[in-house]
Amino acid sequence: MTSLATGSPEARSGNGLITCGTPTVTIKSSEAHPLVATGDEMKSVEERFWAKVEKTEGCWNWVAVRSDGGYGLFWSHSREKMQAHRFAYELLVGPIPNGLTIDHLCRNRGCVRPSHLEPVTMRENTRRGVSIVARQMAQRTCVRGHPLEGDNIRSRPDRPRTRVCKECGRLSSQEWSMGHRTYNIEKCKEWRARRKAAALQGKREDV
Fold this sequence. Notes:
By secondary structure, the protein is an alpha+beta fold. It is about 35% helix and about 20% strand. The chain contains five helices and ten strands. The chain has helices at about 40-50, 85-90, 120-125, 130-140, 165-205, and strands spanning about 1-5, 25, 55, 60, 75, 80-85, 100-105, 115-120, 155, 160-165. A hairpin with a 2-residue loop joins β9 and β10 (about 160-165).
């Protein structure tokens, strides 16, 4: 085994992103890795793969075909299409555990450097991202400033992972009730005014 280290794990920020260093990753030799092919065949696959990688002091950038999402695509010896960063991780580090996906700590989707890749759950990968869902997951208060935690949150039946502020729901119900009550009062006033006007008109006709 050899070790690929360009920094220390402490250099990683709290949300898992690389700051001024990268974590140490233990790399296995290709001969010991059960990636399917062995010997000359595996060497040929590796040569084709690394020919499509541009190594820099930071990221190892994939310079060949990419998906619409920006991830590198590589056809292995079996002609199976794989994401380049996943191929690199399994080649140099080991199998990706079941149920986990690979997160780019460097936030460069075209990077295949193992020390910039980390297996995480899909939920954690989403939380670390920059999507609307990620921003919602990072929220600590609702739009009215109520805390989105503890007993003040509930989930929607159709969206079990969505956090809904109970206090906002209570205030909305209260506002609706007050508005509906005010509406009914105004309607009653209008109805009484029309009834009174009709009665006065009837008296004038009798005279």
